[in-house]
Write a structure and sequence with these properties.
It is a single chain. The protein is mainly alpha-helical and 124 residues long. The protein folds into two domains: 80 residues, no CATH class; 34 residues, no CATH class. Helices cover 55% and strands 6% of the residues. The protein is elongated, with a radius of gyration of 16 Å. The chain starts with a helix and ends with a helix. The N terminus is likely disordered.
């Protein structure tokens, strides 16, 4: 699915769970490295702008989005969606916008879950 620039930038807004779940096709690796490996402050606009640029997004446009509230509604809507789905921490994986695999699970749990989801999909 193709997302607009503003939707892609919304992923860099305040919450990491939303970033992981709503990457919109942009590479969130830089943001994850900045947060987890480099322990950078995710509430610092320049950290987010640098991560946006590393993901291939325009830094000037990213800064403009962060300085405005034009993505605030989209961010809050996604935040509310994930909170209502029971996501309060990461990792959380949503499959097909309806199945939640929560927490750091072993590969076997992912395999079993994905097989069940595929089986349910073939019954439709």
């Amino acid at each position: 699915m193709t997302r607009s620039f503003e939707q892609a930038m919304a992923m860099f807004a305040p919450t990491l769970p939303m970033v992981v779940a709503y990457s919109g096709g942009a590479d969130s690796t830089a943001l994850l490295l900045a947060c987890h490996r480099d322990r950078q402050a995710m509430d610092e606009p320049e950290v987010l702008v640098a991560a946006a640029m590393a993901a291939g997004l325009d830094g000037t446009a990213a800064r403009a989005v962060l300085q405005s509230d034009r993505c605030a509604d989209a961010v809050r809507e996604r935040e509310a969606l994930y909170t209502s789905a029971g996501i309060h921490s990461v990792p959380a994986v949503i499959v097909n916008d309806q199945y939640l695999i929560s927490g750091g699970q072993p590969a076997e749990v992912f395999e079993q879950s994905l097989r069940q989801i595929a089986a349910n999909g073939s019954k439709s």
